[in-house]
């Protein structure tokens, strides 16, 4: 640490911030229940996670994972097909694990939030009404009962690290809970539809592709306002919504 020449702000907004100092990530969260969930989820997860170096609320210190992120939303991924398949296999291992003790969001909560976000997107002129209506209709397929599994809950492509063809770890577990397996798969492949086949090859079981597509629309509809209000670029998610037919 003494040789560190600069501090990198990885992400920062009103709720949380993550700083990188050398090979250490410092996560600062105003809501310690999220950090509690993250620490417990990492302890339970049967796949590689960052090493916890220390915790002094509101700060959680984690060791950096080896390798690089599987990809980035809005950019082509240079990772191999084998790496994407390995990510799918890791997700399957997680989904086969015992459930965490805390519940996830209910179907009614998700549907209610979705309706509110669709209304906001239209009333604020973020997207044309027909784009929102089309995606709301596609999203309906995700709003069905599911058998809960241990889900990561925010399995963005940037949260999966690989070295060559191997997964070295998964980060950011604060949204982990009981949830829909297909939500994790959809989040991982959001904006990388061409990689879905590789992920499912590693996942090793048939899934309903219409539900995957529904979660692509639903997640993008739900997150656009949050991104805008917290100073992030929503264009990758908006591009996903515009591409739906």
From TrEMBL:
Aminoglycoside phosphotransferase domain mapped to chain residues: 27-205
Q: Which InterPro entries match?
A: AGP_Transferase, Aminoglycoside_PTrfase, Kinase-like_dom_sf
Tell me any Pfam family this protein matches. APH
Write down what this protein is called: Phosphotransferase
Say which species the protein is native to: Nonomuraea longicatena
Show the taxonomic lineage. Answer: Bacteria, Bacillati, Actinomycetota, Actinomycetes, Streptosporangiales
